[in-house]
Every structure is written in structure tokens, then in C-alpha cells.
Amino acid sequence: MSIAITLHLLAAVIWVGGMFFAHQVLRPIAAAQLEPPLRQPLWVGVFNRFFPWVWIAFITILVTGYWMLFGVFGGMAKVGLYVHTMHGLGLLMVAIFLYVYFVPFAGLKRAVAEQAWPEGKKHIDRIRDLVGINTILGFLTIAIGAGGRFLV
Ligand code: HEM
């Protein structure tokens, strides 16, 4: 259990922390300092490097989460509302990431390859909004995961 919960937590830190940095630190600076022909390839480079970590993180969260849920706690009927809430929010976060990865991110890579900057902007705006939502869901899920057991 100690290894599973440590990996679970570290994976959440990498995923949510990375999204927070991209959305709240890198994004406003890139928008203020770089024109689309420099900004959009930068984002493709950043996501090409960050998204593989997100794949590793969410697979680790799912594997360790289900292992703890079924292997340690004895299944869905044996856990509190906070684990069910974390489970639901976790699956929603994974669904949003997979949509971002296979739709606007794929579109952004195509637009940058074709130097279609107006098209690229549409995809970046979509990614920005969805990563913003996933960052808020991530903080909420971490708060529920860490503090929920003391509430219910
Ligand atoms: C399939 C989805 C998930 C399942 C089944 C799951 C399951 C669990 C379980 C069983 C625990 C242990 C609870 C306890 O010790 O009382 C836990 C803890 C935790 N989970 Fe999740 N989880 C999931 C997704 C997530 C996600 C997406 C995040 C964050 C983004 C997250 C963050 C945490 C945190 C912060 C803890 C507390 C760790 C600690 O006490 O040190 N979980 N999770």
C-alpha cells in the first residue's frame, strides 16, 4: 500500500503540477512575447515532451488506484464517498486528456506543419480551455483524495 499510494500521489503531482505550470506560467508569457509562428511550434514542442508524462501519470494513477481500491480496501462497497468521487473525477480527467491528445493536439500539429496559424490558434484555444478545466478538476481531486477520509 505504501508504494501504491506514493506512486499514485507522485503521478498526480506530475500531471496536475505540469498542467498548472503550462496554463498559469508558460501560457501568458508565450502569449505576451511570441508571435504565432514562434508560439505554436513552441507549444507543439512542450506538449510533445509533457504529454508522454501524462500518459505515464494517468496509467499509474489508474493501476495504483484500482489496486488500492480492490486489493487493499476490498472493492467499491467498502470505500467511502470520497474514493467514489475521486474515481469519477479521475475518469473525467482521463477522458478530457484523451480528447485533447487525439483531437485539438493532433489538429495543432497538422496546422503547425502547414503553417496555418489561424487554424492553429483555434486548436490552442481549445487545449487552453480544457487544460484549465482539468487543472481545476486535478486540484479538487487531490484535495478529496488527501482530505476526504477525514470528512466522511
Ligand atoms: C481511477 C481513478 C482513481 C482511483 C480508483 C483512486 C483511488 C484512490 C484510493 C483507493 C486512495 C487511498 C485512499 C485512502 O487511503 O483512504 C487514493 C488516494 C489518493 N488519490 Fe486517488 N484514485 C483515483 C484517481 C485519482 C486522481 C486522478 C488523483 C489526482 C489528480 C488522485 C489523488 C489521490 C490523492 C492525493 C490521494 C491521497 C494520497 C495520500 O493520502 O497520501 N486520485 N486514491
Structural key phrases:
mainly alpha; binds protoporphyrin IX containing FE; 152 residues; Four Helix Bundle (Hemerythrin (Met), subunit A)
Task: Itemize the secondary structure elements and their pairings.
Blueprint: H1 2-33, H2 36-72, H3 81-102, H4 104-113, H5 117-147
Bound molecules: protoporphyrin IX containing FE (HEM).
Low-confidence stretches: none
Mean pLDDT: 97
Give the structural class. mainly alpha
State the total count of DSSP E strands: 0
The oligomeric status of these chains comes to single chain
Number of domains: 1
Proportion of beta-strand residues: under 5%
The CATH C-level class name? Mainly Alpha
- CATH-scheme architecture: Up-down Bundle
Q: How many whole angstroms does the radius of gyration measure? A: 17 Å
State the end-to-end CA separation: 21 Å
Task: Count every helix, treating DSSP H or I runs of 4 or more residues as helices.
Answer: 5
Report the major sheet.
Answer: none
The bound ligands are: protoporphyrin IX containing FE
Q: What is the 3D shape?
A: elongated
Give the fraction of residues assigned to helices: over 70%
